[in-house]
Amino acid sequence: ASSPPPAFDLRHYWTSFISEIDARLDAAVPVRYPSRVHEAMRYSVLSGGAKRAPSVMCVAACELVGGRERRDAAFPTACALEMVHAASLVHDDLPCMDAASLRRGRPSTHALYGVDMAILAGDALFPLAYEHVTSATPLALVSEHAVVQVLAEIARTVGSTGMAAGQFLDLEGGSSSESQVLDVLGRKFGEMAECSAACGGLLGGADDEEVGMLRRYGRAVGVLYQLVDDILMEEKEGVGSNGRSMGKMRSNASVVDVVGMDRALEIVEGLREKAKNHLQGFEEKYGERVLPLYSFVDYAVDRGFVIQEAIPASIAKV
Amino acid sequence: GKEAAALATEFDFKGYMLSKAAAVNRALDLAVPLVEPRRIHEAMRYSLLAGGKRVRPVLCIAACELAGGHESLGMPPALAVEMIHTMSLIHDDLPCMDDDDLRRGQPTCHRAFGEPLAVLAGDALLALAFRTLSNPQSYPSSLSVPPSRIVRAVAELARCVGSEGLVAGQVVDIESTGRAEPVPIERLEYIHLHKTAALLEASVVIGAIIGGGSDPQVERLRRYAQCIGLLFQVVDDILDVTKSSQELGKTAGKDLASDKTTYPKLMGLEKSREFAEELNRDAKQQLEDFDREKAAPLVHLANYIAYRQK
């Protein structure tokens, strides 16, 4: 697969997307009675610095198959993906799990609101995600059949064979082979990206074959992104790009530790090629509309710019 | 009065409950296979299959059948509400919440599997509930369920369990515990309506929606469910002061010991019993427009909740 021409400005596309999705999330998670749990939910979803990778993937996949005029079809689901993503992170950070007191350079939800509120905020964000999809998806653009598929897809992704499994396997540790660490990465990070791309496709009107391609593309990109993060962390030997406290890596199963740096870089190249291969069919059909998806692959590897807010110096030094 | 009594003799409620609960147990067993990673599925199964009377799923199926649907159509929503009920118990029992060691006479999930797995098993059951409800493949292939019904049911369930439903009740409960001043009755009712009644409401309402009930039918059944939801809690409070731990299978008198406000404490035992009677009557009133024979299970379920001994 050839690289896209540099005409597509991913940085601009992504940054303007972040302000758009943040505004929608701001409206989708209001403070109601009882206020404390709603504040904890808002803090978890809106506490700044999030790259919004799941939602940008979802909307870009929808635009690919449905065109830009169809993008409003994807936004409620994009918001829902951010909600379930945030809910998982809140529970992953708990003292009995990864015991992370920082998230993106700020206190994690339980550090600020207490462990009980953090559990309940997570428990409430999952259903809010489903509710938001049902109430906000424009039925003028999307069939109820597609809405049902999206709901089932999200529920499968966060469940006992997907992200919850990834977190469990990661906590359990003992991943000593390449396939084991890649399995953990796949479940913890590949699943969410796969779900995001597949949902975007479903909402954009993709056929089964296209959804399948988006699914495999998304999974490859999700794993690729995380793998490169691991490598960069290994090189820096410092704070991860998510600004979490030292001594606790985002994932306990570091691929680099298990397979070595050379092999890790090989896997990266393999995944980059695989992800792009899944896009070839789309390129023939949709031409330039596929450029955002190509650029995600290159960004995952090259990190040509910083998409999130800078980590405050006081925390970076800890 | 008399007619209801006559019906009570005709309808074999005990047999109905046992056969429906058995069907629910079989379906729950199949809904959580022991796949990899095994440990997380073991934890889910441990709590989900620990027994219990399956009141919520039976209510769901009964409402589905009353609305015109077959039992097999009501099974996916029935499983969903039982999964969510189990999930809320697992998270409620955690050390940072109620810190309970026993549930239905067995070690709680986190005592048996550790805290991280208890958190994850709860999250996974919550996800599986919505997956079961929304996945068209959960339903019998001979009956195609209109997607509009599924979308409506998902919206309803999500609302009843979220930050303005079940979770709201837990939050206000936490905020009201251990305070010097007594909890006012409005707040107590808020807690119960959200913590207990919301899921009973969802059980009945999504059963009726998936079963194909009309909007007025769904709303009447919603009011029925709200009454029995509050009834459930009033009876729970009464049992807590009148029964021993052994009879209940859980720590009795805990509400008194922890200074939790209860109906008997607030209005006295006799007035609490009268209130329970009133709620039971109101609940049954909502069923009067339905076919009498078909409504029998829900009539008896209300009695069952009102007169249970544990």
TrEMBL record, chain B:
In terms of SUPFAM superfamilies, this protein maps to:
Terpenoid synthases
Identify the Pfam families for this entry: polyprenyl_synt
The entry's protein name is: Geranylgeranyl diphosphate synthase
Q: Which GO terms describe its molecular function?
A: geranylgeranyl diphosphate synthase activity; metal ion binding
One term under GO cellular component: cytoplasm
What InterPro entries does this protein's entry cite?
A: Isoprenoid_synthase_dom_sf, Polyprenyl_synt, Polyprenyl_synt_CS, Prenyl_diphosphate_synthase
- What organism is the protein native to? Dioscorea zingiberensis
Q: Which family does it belong to?
A: Belongs to the FPP/GGPP synthase family.
Q: Does the keyword Transferase apply?
A: yes
Cite the annotated pathway.
Answer: Isoprenoid biosynthesis
What cofactor(s) does the depicted protein rely on? Answer: Mg(2+)
User: Coiled-coil regions in this chain?
Assistant: 266-296
- What are the GO BP annotations of this UniProt entry? isoprenoid biosynthetic process
For this UniProt record, give its keywords in alphabetical order, as a comma-separated list. Answer: Coiled coil, Isoprene biosynthesis, Magnesium, Metal-binding, Transferase
